[in-house]
């Protein structure tokens, strides 16, 4: 993108988004810096989630995943915490 901007003074946003997201659409309408989002990210539900890691293990290993709608953020949370499934 920077190279394209240096050459032409502009960026083809549609091409960049379609290329980087492999033609899928994403839900990011805008982004804010950490200093703007910190107050929202410090809420009780994010600091101390209502569902514990142990309960996630019970839900998934008990077949509960069949009742969940696809959710990328949940997938990412599970993927980034592989110790959930340590017995």
Secondary-structure blueprint of this entry?
Elements: H1 2-8, H2 13-20, H3 34-41, H4 44-47, H5 53-61, H6 72-79
Question: Care to give the gist of this entry?
Answer:
This protein is mainly alpha-helical and 87 residues long.
Describe it for me?
The chain is an all-alpha fold and 87 residues long. It has one domain. It is 51% helix and 0% strand. The protein is built from six helices and no strands. It starts with a helix and ends in an 8-residue tail after the last helix.
Features:
single chain, 51% helix, mainly alpha, 87 residues
Round the Cα radius of gyration to an integer and report it. Answer: 19 Å
Number of helical elements: 6
Q: Can you give the helix content as a percent range?
A: 40-55%
- Domain count: 1
How far apart the termini lie comes to 46 Å
Say how many strands there are.
Answer: 0
Derived structural class = mainly alpha
Query: How big a fraction of the residues is strand?
Result: under 5%
Mean pLDDT: 75
Low-confidence stretches: none
The helix/strand series, from N terminus to C terminus, equals HHHHHH
**Biggest pleated-sheet summary:** none
Structural shape: elongated
